Amino acid sequence: MAKKVLLFADVGIDDTIALIYGYLSRKVDLVGVVADYGNVPRQMGLRNITYLINLFNISNQTKVILGAEKPMTGEDPIFYPEIHGKYGLGYIKPPDLPEGGFTENFYEVVNLINQYAGEIIIVNTGRLTSLANMYILFNDLMKKVKEVYVMGGAFWVPGNVTPVSEANIHGDPIAANIVFRYARNLTIIPLNVTERAIVTPQMVDYIQSKGRAKIIKPLLDFYYEFYKKRNPSIKGSPVHDALTLMATINPSIFSYQSLPVHVSTNGTVTKGQTIADIRPYATFNHEESKHRIAFDFDYQAFYHDFMSVMTGELI
């Protein structure tokens, strides 16, 4: 039976790959997508989600929900067109939204959690602002969520915004602290594993030749160009968000540790740093959560699952 997934996403290239993976996987039922700011402004993320729903002829059962526009820090968000393209989809310019647009409908998250109480899984692949608001406003309701998966953080590996900070956490460290404080059954999929979830140009060409995962080539060709400029030795594009969604249905491909996690909320370099407490002698109060953190994964298992879903073939 397919798992009910509610995705919180700032829909740039990587989130789009995750959306395509989720739409094509028979093991995932995407019941809703929350459009957040992050890689792109919220309105652009909404535009990209709408484009993908129309492109893949997704049923009306996938609700599109407006999320946060700004972080809890009160700062203006920084966007990354050099990574994701002017419109968030690399070389692609999606059509404008219909006249009239969307109205604020964030309460739909509450309705979905109630509708799928005890089975819904939340996957957060962008900034954590909207998800943190759920814990602030509806903390008891969040106990009905089966599991929460967050793409974010960097533990003893380099960050991608500062030397120690990953973009999703750095973009709103206050929200990240709230989620890590209150969430239960939380799994963190950090850069430790996602930066190694590489899709090579040869993989992209083969997927594109099968015609199932539409637009994957212009997306990942653009993404790869950015990563090659930053690291000439890289062999392909890391699909951080698709790996996080994959973790909901293939947890066995990862190895984990359960540890308390704290987030630094200030400092030029340390803002957004995720700190896992590995002291074996430390004692924690009963309110302090330990979260499952992925530190390694089986690349071959990732390769077979990703390629099989994206091509429709058993690889």
Automatic annotation (TrEMBL):
Keyword Transmembrane set for record: no
UniProt KW Nucleotide-binding keyword: no
Top-rank lineage group of the source organism: Bacteria
EC top class, as a word: hydrolase
Entry-linked Pfam families: IU_nuc_hydro (PF01156)
Enzyme Commission code(s) on record: 3.2.2.-
The Inosine/uridine-preferring nucleoside hydrolase domain, residue ranges: 5-303
Gene Ontology molecular function terms on file: hydrolase activity, acting on glycosyl bonds
Keywords, comma-separated and alphabetical: Glycosidase, Hydrolase
Matches recorded under InterPro entries: Inosine/uridine_hydrolase_dom, IUNH, Ribo_hydro-like
Name of this protein: Nucleoside hydrolase
Organism: Fictibacillus fluitans
